[in-house]
Amino acid sequence: MTGSRRAVVTGIGVIAPNGVGTDDFWKAVREGRSALSVIDREGCGHLPLRVAGLVSGFDPAAFVEERFLVQTDRFTHFAMAAAGLALDDSGLSPADPFGVGVVTAAGSGGGEFGQRELQQLWSKGPSHVGPYQSIAWFYAASTGQISIRGGFKGPCGVVASDEAGGLDAFAHAAGAVRRGTDAVVAGAAEAPIAPYSMVCQLGYPGLSTAVEPERAYLPFDPDAAGFVPAEGGALFTVEAEEAARARGARIRAEIAGHAATFTGGARWAESRDGLAHAVRGALAEARLAPDEVDVVFADALGVPEADRAEALALADVLGPHAERVPVTAPKAGIGRAHCGAPALDVAAAVLALEHGIVPPTPHVTACAHDLDLVTGYPRTTELRTALVLSRGLMGSNSALVLRRSN
Fold first, then answer.
1. Residue 59 CA to chain centroid, in angstroms?
2. For the Ketosynthase family 3 (KS3) domain, which residue ranges apply (predicted)?
C-alpha cells in the first residue's frame, strides 16, 4: 500500500556561503571553516547589520538558462541551481512527468528583484516596471520555475513560513511519496542580503550587530549575543525507496520522521515545550527511542534564552542521553539563511551519516549548557540516525529524523 512507502534522499544540491556544490560544502563543514564576512553589498554599508554569510563564486549563468534568469530573483537562481545539482546527483530521469513533484520553503522571497523594480516604479514610473515583478518576488517562484524547467507535473507546493519551514518541506515531500508520487524535488534557498530585505530583518530580536565575523554568531557559547543572516540553501531529490532501488540509485538517507509545533514569535522560553513536543513526534514517527539518536544538528539561535530552551528541550525528551549525544551547529560558520538554514543542516546531516563524522561548531570554544557540543575538530563515530532541529523567529518549531541507508 502507498501509505507504507518509505521516502529516501537520492540527490543533494548545495549553494552555500561555504561552498557551491556538495563536495566543497562538506569539506568546509567537516573542517569547521567559517564563511561569515563583513557585508559588502551596495546600499548596505550604513545599516547596523554588519556580518552575514554571503555566497561567493556563484555564476547563475553557469547553472540556469538565460530565459529563466531574467524573470527570477537571486533566491530562485540558488534554488534552480541546487535543484539541478540534486537531480544530477540522483541520476533521476523520470518517464512520467506526473510522477515528479516540487516543494520548496521560503520566508524571505525575492527581495532583491522586488526592490529593483519598485525603485524603477518610483523613480521612472510604471512603464519602467518589468512584467516579471508580479512573479519574481513571490514565495512560490522557486517551486514554479523548478517544475516548469524540469517539466514536472506532479504535486507541487510551497511552505511560506519562517525558518522551520525548511524542515517542513521534507515532511510534505515524504507525504507525497507515501501517497504514491515517485519523486519530489524538495528543500529551500533564500537570498535576503539586499538593502530592502535587510531593513526588514532589523526588527528581529536577537539579531547580532557585531562587527567581527568570528564573534558575531556564537550559539551555546557563554558569549552568545545573537545570530547573523545568510543566503543560499539546498535542494534534494526525494524518492520512494523501492523505485530508487529498482533503478539502481544510491540511497543517501531515509526521511524517517518529522513533527512540527507553534509557540509564538520570540517566546524562547516557551519554545522549550514546543520543540520538545516536535522532537517526541518525530522520534515516534521514526520509531526511534531517545537513546538511539546518534547526533543532533541543533537550531542554535545564538540568543542565550533560546539556546537554554533548546538544551532543556533536548534534556526533556532524551533524558540523560542529552548530555552524551554529540550536538553540532555548522550554521555558526554559515549564518542562518532563513528556510535555507535547516535545508543546509539536512545536507550536512546526510553527509555526516555517510562519512561517520560529526562536524564541529565554528568559532565556539566553550559551551554554557549541559550538551556535548562538538567544537574545534570533527569527531569520528558510528552514526545511524540524525536529529535535525529548527525554530523560526515567528514561533515555528520543527524536528526531522534521518536514518542512514543500509
1. 21
2. 4-404
Domain that holds residue 266: 256-404
Contacts of 296 (CB under 8 A, 6+ apart): 314, 325, 326, 327, 328, 386, 387, 388, 389
* 43-52, 141-150, 343-352: least confident range: 43-52
Give the three-state DSSP class for 88: helix
Quick check: 228 and 53 in contact, CB under 8 A? yes
Concatenating the DSSP letter of every residue in 128-196 gives: GS-TTHHHHTSTTHHHHHHHHHHT--S-EEEEE-STTHHHHHHHHHHHHHHTT-SEEEEEEEE---SHH
Asked whether 238 and 184 are in contact (CB, 8 A), the reply is yes
Total tally of structural domains belonging to the chain: 2
Q: Are 20 and 197 in contact (CB under 8 A)?
A: no
Q: What is the mean pLDDT of residues 270-290?
A: 97
Position 251 in a domain: no
Q: Looking at the structure, tell me whether residues 230 and 344 fall in a common domain.
A: no
- Tell me, what's the pLDDT at 341? 97
Residue 58 corresponds to which cell in the numbers above? 556563484
**DSSP category for residue 311:** H
| pLDDT 10s digits, 366-399 | 999 999 999 999 999 999 999 999 999 999 999 9
- We report the CATH number of the domain holding residue 273 as 3.40.47.10
3-state secondary structure of 181: coil
- Asked whether residue 60 is assigned to any structural domain, the reply reads yes
Output the CA torsion sign for 299, 300, 301, 303.
positive
Domain end point (choices 185, 213, 246): 246
Mean local confidence (pLDDT), 28-39: 97
- Tell me the three state secondary structure of residue 361: strand
Say if CB 105 and CB 72 are below 8 A apart: no
Q: Domain boundary residue among 218, 246, 274?
A: 246
**Residue 117's pLDDT band (boundaries 50, 70, 90)?**
low
| Cβ atoms within 10 Å of 203's Cβ, excluding its own | 8
Q: State the average pLDDT over residues 301-315.
A: 97
pLDDT of 262 over the 50 cut? yes
